[in-house]
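Practice problem: predict the structure.
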Amino acid sequence: MIAGLPQADKSLFHKPDLFTLFTLIIGYRQHLRVVGTSMERTLKEGDLVIYKKLNPKNIGLEIGDIVVASHPNRKNKLIIKRIHRIYQNKFDLRGDNTFSSTDSRELGLIELDLIIGKVDKIFPK
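Answer:
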């Protein structure tokens, strides 16, 4: 264990179930495959991540949540990071792997409108 790094939230790890498959089909949830090592200890390259689309009326984001956001400088690229701090409608997003993460330390605070979803299930590779 490395001091200071968050531990994997075991409640996010699930086996596929019918409800998850149904919400994927109707579009309430989206999925993506993890690329890179910036969230290691929680997410590994090749893991499948299921995320709920963000509801602007009921944001419900908290410090420690893992979110999917559009990269602020490359709109076609998505990033997966953990919420480190919240400043009104701006978020300090950081990778769990401090030594291999491009995050708010380089990108600055991420605006709420760039956050597209909250990770709620992880299917390990």
